[in-house]
What we know:
The chain is mostly helical and 398 residues long. It has helices at 42-57, 69-79, 87-105, 115-128, 133-149, 180-193, 196-208, 212-216, 262-281, 305-316, 327-339, 343-350, 355-361, 367-382, 387-390; strands spanning 4-8, 14-24, 31-39, 223-224, 229-232, 235-238, 244-247, 256-259. Strand 1 and strand 2 (14-24) form a beta hairpin.
Amino acid sequence: MATIKQYTKKDGSTAYMFKKYLGVDPVTGKQKETTRRGFASKKEAKLALSRLEVEVSEGYLQIKKNMSFYDAFEVWFNEVYKFKVKESTYWNTKLIFDKHILPVFGSLKLNRVNVAYCQKQANIWRNSSPKRYQRFINYTGMVFKYGVSIGELQSDPMGKIILPSPIENDEEQQPNFFDKDELLFFLQYMKDHYSLKRFTFFFLLAYTGLRKGEALCLTWRDIDLKKKLLTVNKTLASGQKGALLIQKPKTTASNRSISLDNDIVEVLKSWKLQQLRELESLGHIHSLEQLVFSTIDNTLMYPRTPQSWLDVFYRKNHHIKRITVHGFRHTHASLLFEAGANMKQVQSRLGHTTIKTTMNVYTHVTKESKEATAEIFSTFMRTKNNLGQSLGQKKPLS
C-alpha cells in the first residue's frame, strides 16, 4: 500500500511524495518499485498515484511517454548508470542528484524543460557551488541525453546552454602543496609530537605520492621491504551511508609498482615492528594481510581520519600553510619536478592515465624554482649568452 508523505525541499518549501511497489518485471523477474516526488499538493500526489495504480494493474511496466525528469532519472540511474561506474561513484552521484538536481528538475516534464530554464539553473549553481557547478550541469545533461536516446526528447536542452565562467578569486589561491622546507618541518613535528602511525602515514604519502584511499587499504603483502617495492592494486572508498568499500583503483594506470628509497623503508620497518607489538597486546594476530594503517579495533580507518590529524596539527602550528591530505600527493609531484624528474617519470609514479593529467595538475613550481627562473634571466642580462643557452638549450650549429 503506497503512502503519501509530506517533505521539506532544499529551499524550505513543502512538497509531497510516495513510493509504489510495481510488482515483478516480466522481463527480468526482479521486483520493482518507484518513488515519485515534487508534487505541490497532496491532491496532486493522490492523482498521480491513482494513475500509476491503473498502469500497474494493466501490467504497464514499460517506459512511459511524457515522463517527468524524475521518471527519466530513475530509469537511467538504475538501469544504465549503475552498471557503468563503481559502487562508491554510484552512491556519491546519488547524493548530488538528491541534494542539488532533483529538487529543481525532478517534478518537471522532461519534454517541457527549455534551454532558458537550464541556463538560469546553471547560473544559480555557478554562484551557490562555484567548485562543483560544472559537475551538476554534466549530470543533469546525462538524464536529458537519455531522454533523447529513448525518443522522449528531440535534443538535450542542457547541452545548448552557454557554460557560466568560473568565479574569479581576487585573492591568489594558496597552492595545495608544501615546499621542501615546509615538508621537512611538518614531518619532524609529526615525528616528535604524535604517534609513529601518523608520522608514517604522512611520510608515506609525501615520499610516494599515494592517494589517501590507496594508502588506507594497503596491507603488508603489498610492500616488499627487501626489494623496496610497493604495489598499488586497490583503493578505499565510501558507499551508501558511508559504508567503507575496497575496490579497484581509480584507473587502470593506477595499478602500479612504486620504488621505495632507504628512508621510507626504514620508517616502514619501524612502524611494522611497533604495530606488531600493539596488535599482540590487544590480542590480534599479525599476518601479511594485516592493514598497514588500521583502527584500534584493527579495522579499516575512516577516510576522514587523516584530515582530522592534519586539523590538530594546524591548530598548534598557525604559521604553517594549510594543505589537504591530497596535498601531499601534490607535494610529492612538485618536489619530483624540482629534483629533475621528467613528465613521463612523474606520470608513471603517480599512476596517471594520460600525460595531460600530469601536466594540468602538477605544473606547479616551488619557491626555489621561481627564484631560479629569476636568476636565469638575471644571468642572461649580465652575460652575452642568449636566453636559450641560459635555460640549458644548445645553440644550433650554423
